[in-house]
Specification:
- The protein is mainly β and 69 residues long.
- The protein has a domain of 25 residues.
- It is 0% helix and 20% strand.
- It has no helices and 2 strands.
- It has a two-stranded antiparallel ribbon.
- The chain is elongated and about 75 Å long.
- The mean pLDDT is 80.
């Protein structure tokens, strides 16, 4: 069997990426709309810019138990 080695020729490009949203909290299933800005300080010679956005979920509830009447 042969083996294959991929050569990663990516390099860091100076600049910044920012996300502008109307609000900071969302509910499940809600569409998030905003502006994603990419500001580069040098030429970008790639053919693909991939950005992954991750978030965290927080759930709160109150449980009340009443025994008998």
């Amino acid at each position: 069997m042969g083996s294959s080695e991929s050569i990663d020729r990516r390099r860091d490009v100076k600049g910044k990426i920012y996300l502008m949203l109307q609000k900071s909290g969302f509910i499940s299933g809600e569409i998030i709309e905003g502006l994603l800005g990419v500001q580069l300080e040098e030429r970008f010679q790639g053919h693909l810019l991939q950005i992954t956005i991750e978030g965290a979920e927080e759930t709160r509830y109150t449980y009340k138990y009443t025994k008998g009447k």
